[in-house]
């Protein structure tokens, strides 16, 4: 039987190719409907979509694919946007939001010639479900019990919160980093390969990793998580924040460094960002969308008694509202990436933007 990892640039996805028997398909429809919906979207996608399987994750009798979707044909000297969802298996809404935007993009490409031409100017890469095994099992971690967002080889320079900041005590406890000498998990290695293939040589890049978490507002986080100091490209983050607020002054996102909330070991985006900076001078802005789940809990407190309800909107109309509410942000990031040379700060602008960022975000911290 053909292995999923042998399939590259497929247009008919594994479910339609008969690579799963009836029992496997029924299990996936019940336990991982996000994968079925994604595969249906990809199987019906227009010619501008190119699909690869970056890795296959074994879970029981399944080999669950990590799909990478490239849209358009922008050359290597154009900017890039990377979208990601499903890092934590409990946070299904992240994958659902990314897939909903992919569906919208696929449908628009069937009639919007301007959009098709526009996608020749920016490289769009989407990984809607990085942790299919964890989502199938209904856990935050991957099937090995490792929290993928605590698994990178980078340690906190400031004191981190016990457990939440990452621990190596046991995979039975949350926020497990994995064994010290084991290296990164296959899901993270697949993501690293995508980043190292897509980003180098480009004049500008943005990524957005979609999560849900506790909070009253939707938040957009940026590095660092391992220390309370500004990142190298903090002036560009401030410029992007101002650009968004000028275009959409009534938005409901809160921009802030992740370290504003807690300091952690093993943060993926800290590690990839620092690794990229050692080899490239062009800016890359790795952002994280944290959808505030407290609003869903406030309106339906009984969700507190459900693990899924802690991280996902369970009422239909509220779920639909969340799916559509972030499409404007995704469209904005796509357009901002393509037109980076119109707003990215010059060296002189960067100086005052960096000073503004330090005052705005780091005035209570160290190294101001």
Automatic annotation (TrEMBL):
GO terms for biological process: proteolysis. GO terms for molecular function: metallocarboxypeptidase activity; zinc ion binding. It comes from the Bacteria. Keywords: Carboxypeptidase, Hydrolase, Metalloprotease, Protease, Zinc. Its cofactor is Zn(2+). InterPro entries: Peptidase_M14. This is Zinc carboxypeptidase.
